[in-house]
Specification:
single chain, alpha/beta, 17-stranded mixed β-sheet, globular, LRR_dom_sf
Length: 683
C-alpha cells in the first residue's frame, strides 16, 4: 500500500522536481536511481538527463570504434537523449595497422597498480601511475591530417557534431589528438571545453613545433591539459614540455585554466649521463610574449617531484600565471609515490613567504621533514605557519611528516569551513646518506585526535584518515566508535595501517614479554625481525568481510547526526618495517590477507536501510592467487605468449610456519589461503 501511494505521489510531481530527485540519487547512490526509473514513465523520463549527461567511449581499433559509435548513437536516438549529453569521454588507444607499435601497449598492460587492484581501491583521481620510468620526448611522428589514423577517427568526429549541447570533451587516449576531432570541435562545438589528459608536444626536439601541434595547443577549446614531463627523457634528450606548458598557461592558450604536470625521473639513478651536461636553453614557442601572465584556476604538480628544485619550479610557475586566481592547488601527496612526492619544510616556508593564494579552496600537498643535508628542527613551525597563512579551505589533503602541532594549525585555521579532510601521515623509509638512520615513527591518530576533529570541523562531510591496526583490540575499536561522534560525517575512507616500523625504529618493540621461544626466533634473511613481530603483523593484515562489517556496525551504532552513507577500507602497509626491506614470501601472504572493502547504505522500497558490501581489488587478488597456485603467469609480449614460472609459498616456508601460529590448520591438506579469518573486533 505504501509503495502504491508513493508511485501516485511521484506521478503528480513536476518534471523539474523529478529531475532534481534523479540528480540527487545519481550523486548519492547509483542503484537507487535505477529503482527510481522503474516507478513510472514520468520517473523514467526524469532519469534520462542524468543517465546521459556523461557518455563514455573506450576505443581499441577502427572497426570497434565505428561499431560502438553507431550503438551509442542508436541509443540516443531511441531515447531522444542527444540533447542531454553534456560531457563526452574518450579513452584507450586507437590502433591502426602498420602505424602503431605493440611494444608500448604491452608495457602499459603490465600496470602494477592494476595488478594489485589499487586502481579500483583508490580511483583514478587519487592514484598516480607507479610505473613512471620510461619516458620519451618523441616516440612517434605528429599525426597528419587525412592520414589513415586521422580518417579512422571519423565516426567519433561525426558523433560530436550530433550533440547540440556538449560542454566538455575529455580526451584520455595514447594517440595524439586527431585533426578530425579538432575540426569537429571548432566547426560544431566552439564553446566546448577540451580536457586533454595525454597532452604533450612531439616535435620540440626538431625546433619550432609543427603547425598542427601549435593549432591544437592554442585552440580556444583547450581548457585543461595533463602532461608527463621529465628533466631529461629515457633517451637522454632534454624534455622542454614543461617550459612549453608554462607559456601556454601564460596566454598562448587563451582559455586554458587547468594544468596538471606529472613529473617523471626515468633511469636517472642508473645512468650518470642523465646529469652530465646542462640542458639546452629554451627558445620559446612562436607567438609567446615574455612577461605575459595567465589566469589558471587549477595547478597540479604530481609524480616524482625533485625536492631540491621545487622552489625554483614553483617560482617559474608564478612568473607565468597569477597565483591569486588559483582555486585548486596540488603539490605532490600522490598515493603510491610517497617518498618521491613531498615538499621539504624549507620549500614550504619559501612558498609561505613569497606567495599568497586568496582564492584557494582546495589544497593537496605532500610534506617531509628532512631535506638533502640535515633534519630541520623548525619543520613543524614552518608547515604550521604555512597552513595558518592560507585563507580558510573547503577541501584539504595532507600526506607525509605530520604531528600534533600541524593538526592544531589545520583545525584552528580551516576547521570551520572544511567539508573534506584527508590526512595520511608517513615518514620516509630512506633518509639522506649523510644522516644516521631515521628513527621517527609516523604519526598515529588516537581517539582524542578524532574527537578534536569532531569539535573543530562542524561541516565535515568526508574524512580520510589512517587507523593503526592493533589486533582488533579495544583501543582500535574505540577509534572506530569515535568516528560516530562526527555529526555531519557521511563519507569515510580509512586506511588500515598494518606496518610494523617499530621493529627497526624502537629497540624495545620485539622484547614482548608474551613472546615464547618460537616468537623470539629470528626470521631467516632478516636479522632485524623476530617471528613474533611477523606474527603480529600478519594478524593485523587479515581483514575479511566479517571484520569489515563489524567496523561499519561499530561506527553506526555510535553515529550521531547524519547517517554514514559510505565507508571504504584500504588495508595496506603489511611487510613494511621502516627500513625499505621486503621479502617475496612475506609479500605474497600479506597481499592475500590484506583485503579492502567498500560498504554503502541503500534504502529499500519498504524504507528499511540495507548495506551493499563488496571487496575492492578482488579480481586482481584472485588473479594473483590463481597464478601462484598454478605456478605460471601468462603475459603477451611482442605478439607471443610468454609463460613466467612463479614460486608459490610452500607450507614448510618460515612465513607459513608463522601464519599457522595465528591460524592453526583446521583441515588436513587445506590451502592456507582458505584457512584464516580476522581477529574479532573487541567492542
Amino acid at each position: 500500500m505504501a509503495a502504491d501511494y508513493t508511485r501516485k505521489q511521484l506521478h503528480t510531481l513536476p518534471s523539474e522536481t523529478l529531475q532534481q530527485i534523479a540528480h540527487y540519487l545519481y550523486n548519492s547512490h547509483g542503484p537507487s536511481l535505477n529503482c527510481f526509473a522503474l516507478v513510472n514513465k514520468s520517473c523514467h523520463d526524469a532519469t534520462l538527463p542524468v543517465l546521459f549527461q556523461h557518455v563514455y567511449l573506450t576505443i581499441s581499433n577502427p572497426e570497434d570504434l565505428h561499431r560502438d559509435v553507431n550503438a551509442l548513437s542508436s541509443v540516443l536516438i531511441r531515447t531522444n537523449s542527444a540533447g542531454h549529453v553534456r560531457c563526452f569521454s574518450i579513452e584507450g588507444e586507437l590502433r591502426v595497422p602498420d602505424e602503431l607499435s605493440s611494444e608500448e601497449s604491452e608495457y602499459e598492460s603490465r600496470d602494477y597498480a592494476k595488478s594489485m587492484g589499487h586502481d579500483e581501491i583508490l580511483g583514478s583521481d587519487m592514484l598516480t601511475d607507479q610505473r613512471l620510468s620510461k619516458h620519451f620526448v618523441v616516440s612517434e611522428d605528429v599525426i597528419e591530417r587525412c592520414s589513415n589514423e586521422d580518417i579512422a577517427w571519423a565516426p567519433a568526429a561525426e558523433f560530436i557534431s550530433t550533440l547540440p549541447y556538449l560542454t566538455t570533451l575529455i580526451y584520455d587516449c595514447k594517440n595524439q589528438f586527431p585533426p578530425s576531432l579538432l575540426d569537429a570541435l571548432h566547426n560544431f562545438q566552439p564553446q566546448c571545453r577540451l580536457h586533454h589528459l595525454t597532452f604533450r608536444f612531439r616535435s620540440l626536439l626538431r625546433g619550432i613545433p609543427e603547425p598542427y601541434e601549435m593549432a591544437l595547443a592554442t585552440s580556444p577549446c583547450l581548457y585543461k591539459v595533463k602532461v608527463e614531463w621529465s628533466w631529461r627523457d629515457s633517451n637522454l634528450d632534454d624534455d622542454s614540455n614543461l617550459e612549453a606548458i608554462m607559456e601556454l598557461a601564460a596566454g598562448l592558450a587563451p582559455h586554458l585554466r587547468e594544468v596538471e604536470v606529472l613529473n617523471n625521473r626515468p633511469h636517472e639513478q642508473a645512468s650518470r649521463r642523465y646529469f652530465d651536461r646542462p640542458r639546452k636553453a629554451w627558445t620559446g614557442l612562436p607567438g609567446f610574449v615574455r612577461g605575459s601572465i595567465g589566469s589558471l584556476t587549477s595547478l597540479s604538480l604530481t609524480g616524482k617531484l625533485k625536492s631540491w628544485s621545487m622552489t625554483s619550479e614553483i617560482r617559474a610557475w608564478a612568473q607565468h600565471t597569477d597565483f591569486g586566481r588559483l582555486v585548486h592547488l596540488r603539490l605532490g601527496g600522490d598515493y603510491g609515490l610517497d617518498d618521491y612526492s613531498r615538499l621539504h619544510g624549507e620549500t614550504i616556508h619559501t612558498i609561505a613567504q613569497e606567495f599568497t593564494f586568496p582564492q584557494l579552496k582546495t589544497l593537496q600537498i605532500g610534506i617531509d621533514r628532512v631535506d638533502m643535508s640535515r633534519e630541520k628542527p623548525e619543520y613543524s613551525d614552518n608547515v604550521s605557519h604555512f597552513f595558518k597563512l592560507l585563507e580558510p579551505l573547503e577541501e584539504l589533503s595532507v600526506s607525509g611528516s605530520f604531528d600534533v602541532k600541524i593538526l592544531d594549525a589545520i583545525i584552528s585555521r580551516h576547521g570551520q569551513t572544511l567539508k573534506k579532510l584527508a590526512i595520511r601521515p608517513g615518514e620516509g623509509e630512506w633518509g639522506p646518506s649523510n644522516l644516521p638512520r631515521r628513527l621517527i615513527l609516523p604519526f598515529t591518530f588516537t581517539e582524542e585526535h578524532i574527537l578534536q576533529i569532531d569539535t573543530g570541523c562542524p561541516v565535515l562531510d568526508h574524512l580520510a584518515l589512517v587507523v593503526k591496526r592493533t589486533h582488533s583490540d579495544a583501543v582500535e575499536a574505540n577509534i572506530y566508535k569515535s568516528f560516530g561522534q562526527i555529526r555531519s560525517l557521511r563519507s569515510l575512507f580509512l586506511t588500515l595501517d598494518c606496518s610494523e616500523w617499530r621493529v627497526t625504529r624502537d629497540p624495545d618493540s620485539q622484547r614482548d614479554p608474551l613472546f615464547d621461544a618460537f616468537d623470539r626466533e629470528t626470521y631467516p634473511r632478516f636479522d632485524f625481525l623476530t617471528k613474533g613481530s611477523l606474527r603480529k603483523m600478519l594478524s593485523n593484515c587479515a581483514v575479511d568481510e566479517t571484520l569489515a562489517r563489524s567496523i561499519w556496525e561499530t561506527i553506526n551504532r555510535n553515529k550521531l547526526g547524519l547517517k554514514l552513507e559510505y565507508l571504504k577500507l584500504w588495508t595496506t602497509g603489511g611487510g613494511h618495517w621502516g627500513n625499505g626491506s621486503s621479502s617475496g614470501g612475506i609479500s605474497k601472504v600479506v597481499e592475500h590477507l590484506s583485503r579492502s572493502w567498500l560498504i554503502e547504505r541503500r534504502i529499500r522500497d519498504d524504507e528499511r536501510h540495507v548495506i551493499d558490501l563488496k571487496e575492492l581489488g578482488q579480481r586482481a587478488r584472485e588473479a594473483r592467487d590463481d597464478a601462484d597456485r598454478n605456478g605460471y603467469l601468462r603475459n603477451v609480449r611482442a605478439g607471443e605468449d610468454v609463460l613466467k614460472k612463479l614460486q608459490d609459498v610452500e607450507e614448510e616456508s618460515p612465513t607459513l610456519q608463522v601464519l599457522r601460529r595465528v591460524w592453526p590448520r583446521t583441515e588436513e591438506g587445506m590451502d592456507w589461503r582458505d584457512d584464516w579469518s580476522s581477529l574479532p573486533l573487541q567492542v
